[in-house]
């Protein structure tokens, strides 16, 4: 089954899509694709068949999203917690992932046509080496595409991601790329696996469960959360429309909360910068022992902010280079094999 299904919506689906698109539309939608195992029990088939049907539903859902002008989708494909399942099921999921990413490599023309960039978010070193390599090759081969984005969270939990972001900042301090005073909420956001993406506007979980299961905890603080009872392999275009309608009904309060948070974040950063400048002036003095006037303090503040932003951008560039090199090196190993 192809990752991106070709085909137009039916007439009634197109009419409904056009009505929805008259209102505010989410640009980034995240899915917790839950219910594959229950679907298998319901249909009295093997668990692996349930997971295969779940992947097929993802391909169909991506087609709907493209037709609805939703250009970024993030999916929870495999949690680190899933490693606790039976060896047979975990091995089956690893093999299914390898097959599907290998199939993706055969669909370069289709992916290039739609401009699909594939990103895989998670601790890939927890995966078998052969799966790491095929994932890396898929990521590298679509890296320059920029029309739409599919983020696959694999070997992922949000707490693991946040912990890793803290380690990345600690690495930056140890390497002298940033100062400890540069560490902030905004910087942590840029050190997450998802740093290249805007936060999801809408998060959908299927199967009737009403919890996030350690998925995008940081990124969905101001997202619309929709919990639907349908099992993932049975998900329909109309289920997606229902979720988007809930997003539209809650759009204004969500935007207000986002805007307020941005204002508070900017104020917190300004106060932190002022404290750092005050400490620097106290330690170094003004040169003549006299208190620094307001204009001079403002000049010092502007200079400090410019230096901090330069440090932070240099650190983020080095971090991105390190991440890109990981995928590039793995993909090169695949080519040599």
TrEMBL record:
GO BP annotations, alphabetical order: polyprenol biosynthetic process
Alphabetized GO MF terms: ditrans,polycis-polyprenyl diphosphate synthase [(2E,6E)-farnesyl diphosphate specific] activity
Enzyme Commission identifier(s): 2.5.1.-
Location in the cell: Endoplasmic reticulum membrane
The reaction(s) this protein catalyses: n isopentenyl diphosphate + (2E,6E)-farnesyl diphosphate = a di-trans,poly-cis-polyprenyl diphosphate + n diphosphate
Broad enzyme group: transferase
Topology in membrane: Peripheral membrane protein
Keyword Membrane among record annotations: yes
Any one GO CC term of the record: endoplasmic reticulum membrane
CC cofactor: Mg(2+)
Keyword set, alphabetical order: Endoplasmic reticulum, Magnesium, Membrane, Transferase
Pathway: Protein modification; protein glycosylation
Superkingdom: Eukaryota
Pfam families assigned: Prenyltransf
Entry function: With NUS1, forms the dehydrodolichyl diphosphate synthase (DDS) complex, an essential component of the dolichol monophosphate (Dol-P) biosynthetic machinery. Adds multiple copies of isopentenyl pyrophosphate (IPP) to farnesyl pyrophosphate (FPP) to produce dehydrodolichyl diphosphate (Dedol-PP), a precursor of dolichol which is utilized as a sugar carrier in protein glycosylation in the endoplasmic reticulum (ER).
Subunit structure: Forms an active dehydrodolichyl diphosphate synthase complex with NUS1.
Family affiliation: Belongs to the UPP synthase family.
Entry-linked NCBIfam families: uppS (TIGR00055)
Entry-linked HAMAP family: ISPT (MF_01139)
Protein name as catalogued: Alkyl transferase
Species whose genome carries this gene: Albula goreensis
């Amino acid at each position: 089954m192809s990752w991106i299904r070709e085909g137009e919506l039916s007439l009634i689906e197109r009419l409904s899509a056009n009505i929805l698109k008259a209102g505010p539309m989410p640009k980034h939608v995240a899915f917790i694709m839950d219910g594959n195992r229950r679907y298998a029990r319901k249909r009295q088939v093997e668990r692996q068949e349930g997971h295969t049907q779940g992947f097929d539903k993802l391909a169909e859902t991506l087609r709907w999203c493209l037709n609805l002008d939703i250009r970024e989708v993030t999916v929870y494909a495999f949690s680190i917690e899933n490693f606790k399942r039976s060896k047979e099921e975990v091995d089956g999921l690893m093999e299914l992932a390898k097959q599907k990413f290998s199939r993706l490599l055969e669909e370069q023309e289709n992916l290039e046509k739609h401009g699909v960039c594939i990103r895989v978010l998670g601790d890939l070193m927890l995966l078998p080496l052969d799966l790491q390599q095929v994932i890396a090759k898929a990521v590298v081969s679509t890296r320059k595409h920029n029309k739409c984005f599919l983020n696959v969270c694999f070997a992922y939990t949000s707490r693991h991601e946040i912990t890793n972001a803290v380690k990345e900042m600690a690495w930056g301090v140890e390497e002298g790329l940033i100062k400890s005073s540069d560490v902030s909420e905004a910087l942590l956001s840029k050190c997450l696996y998802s740093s290249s993406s805007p936060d999801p506007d809408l998060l959908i979980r299927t199967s009737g469960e009403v919890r996030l299961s350690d998925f995008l905890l940081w990124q969905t603080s101001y997202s619309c959360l929709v919990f639907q009872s349908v099992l993932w392999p049975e998900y329909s275009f109309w289920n997606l429309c229902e979720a988007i309608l809930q997003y539209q009904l809650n759009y204004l309060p969500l935007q207000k909360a986002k805007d307020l948070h941005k204002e508070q974040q900017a104020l917190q950063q300004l106060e932190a910068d002022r404290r750092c400048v005050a400490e620097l002036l106290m330690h170094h003095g003004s040169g003549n022992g006299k208190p620094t006037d307001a204009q001079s303090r403002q000049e010092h503040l502007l200079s400090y902010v410019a230096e901090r932003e330069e440090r932070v951008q240099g650190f983020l560039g080095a971090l991105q280079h390190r991440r890109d090199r990981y995928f590039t090196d793995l993909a090169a190993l695949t080519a040599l094999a």
